[in-house]
Amino acid sequence: MVSLPFPRLPKSGFVRHIVTLITGAAVAQIIPLLVSPLITRLYTPHDMGIQAVYISWMSALAVLATARYEMAIVLPADERQGGNLMGLSLLCATLLSLLVAMVVAFDGHAKIAARLGAPELEPWLLLLPVSVWLAGLMQAWTNWNNRHRRYQANANGRMTQSLGMAAAQVAGGFLGAGAGGLILGQLAGQIGSLLSQGWADIKSRFAWRREVSRAGMREMASAYSEFPKVNAPHALSTALLDSAILAALTLLAGTAAVGFYGLMMRVLKLPAALIGQAVAQVAYRELAEARNLGQPLRPILRKMMLTLGGMALFPFLVIQLFGEPLFALVFGDNWAEAGRYAEAMSLYILFHFVASPLGMVPPVINRQRFAFLLSLVQAGLFLGTLWLGFSAWNDVVSTFQLVSAVMAAYFLCYFAWLYKAAR
Description:
Layout lengths: L10 H32 L2 H21 L13 H29 L1 H7 L12 H20 L3 H24 L4 H19 L1 H5 L10 H10 L2 H28 L1 H14 L1 H23 L5 H34 L4 H23 L2 H4 L3 H26 L2 H26 L2
């Protein structure tokens, strides 16, 4: 696979693009933060647990939606190749959504909901194929906009998604829709985001489609076959880890614990969503350019690690010391338990914040296979430690403290390997 170098992007442009994405992410995260105290009073932990199960499986399937070809859209210098990768990504998303619809229709959504340990999810599984399709299209357009430096479109998409989701979920809460209000809100946000991301192409009547052909898509599918072969299983294992954690918590502690865990992770991962994703989107292109020009990657990697670690340190200390009273104050006394979970998992979140944007490095340095193996080790350590903790103490907080310590050790080893591999 050969990629021609991109034109040199001025440093000021790099910073400006990151600021644009961070601004959009900040607004997108502020909206749910503002409505969270209302959401937690309109919905029960059980409702949020049902939504968490739905989102976890939707996210796992969405990872496969485009066969990860959307990650390659940024790489080729030739515009025709980029267009064919975009067309290939949309085609894969449509085919997988149709497959999911067939499974839900013929296997029976009641049986699937029962297997997931959440029978109340049954009527809403009919929306799963649509959610997966929209998620795949959003991923494709995110990278298509990155390719053309339309970072404002991606920022607008995140803001629209957040606003649409919050409005629909609040309305559903007042109407007493239960878990369905949360799931429909998620769907409304996806639709709004996709329209915002693709608005420039909608106005141009998708002019890029003229460059797309069956032969061109087959050529790109072969040239970037490493992405579905290695990157897709890697991303799927990461997404399935979240689903497996929720399934384990459902069996070991009940759906209320899943609701506490879901709120806790959503709040603690806000910095990663706010800053980490913005850094990752822009840095991915810059790392690919540096690689193609034969420039060293270690200085970029070292700067990313130190900057992200420094930014995460203060929030980590705050959550570690005041997690329980902060959650009770902001979300209500019923959610104090989520604050205890946050205190226990704060060290894990600190390292996860640093590691998340660094996931863009292995595809650039052609080390996706070993990175995939490491992700399997990560999943095994997390789930194994979770089972061990419950077996020993039968207590969620004590178990999460053990998980946090073990995963911190894993991430230190991961950082050392990544830095060595980037020489």
